[in-house]
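Good morning N.,

You mentioned wanting to compare the apo and holo forms, so I went ahead and generated the holo version with pyridoxal-5'-phosphate. This is what I fed in:
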Amino acid sequence: MVTEALNTVRREIENACARSGRTPSDVCLIAVSKTKPLSMLEEAMAAGQSDFGENKVQELCEKAEALSGRGVTWHLIGHLQKNKVRKAVAVASMIHSVDSIELAAEIQKEAARIGKTQDILLEINVAQEESKFGLSTEQALPAARAIAEMPNVHLCGLMTVAPYTENPEENRQYFSALRELAVDIQAQNIDNIDMSCLSMGMSNDYTIAIEEGATFVRVGSLIFGERNYGTEKGSI
Ligand SMILES: *Cc1c(COP(=O)(O)O)cnc(C)c1O
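and this is what came out, ligand included:
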């Protein structure tokens, strides 16, 4: 099941790259495994999947420990509270959901403590949805400048969670707006940051995100099946 779904998503990624003149190796598929059992992650690993995304620090740590030494790259994609930064920095290869300078400063502190440089993305609430976390587009450049001063934090680009919609074409505007914002920030030539990563697109709209320049797509339900739990903020 997981293997077949994964192969379908991989084919769709290749097709979207072909349509938009991009190279498939420039798009990293993150299998979003939140709420799913280890057995399903292992099935995906057996099918060659190495990048996994979790939205809760506790679950991320438990799974990372259970699968340690097996070559998994972990992405934290959900809202991060300051009091969980230590645990997140211990295991996450990339933290996609940095939404304040204060949070980045906390990450700096923990990363310095353990001698790591933590890769992060700034989460931008492009569609200005009340229910979503993230900086406004106006806040992005000042945040990037502040983070550039943090030696143990490496800002690699931007992330967004687009609105849920029946018609994913409606999200194209938000994906292209995120790309343009990254281009604008890159043009400032700020030392110690770069804007080469764009984390955008989920099960519903990842092919459109790729056409608009996504370098990370975060796909969960299409690979592992639907999740069933409530819709608290941040737990899509
Ligand atoms: C759950 C989640 C995803 C994956 O959502 P699907 O619709 O299941 O693909 C992607 N990004 C974030 C931030 C999530 O929390």
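The radius of gyration is 17 Å.

Happy to go through it together on a call whenever suits you.

Best,
F.
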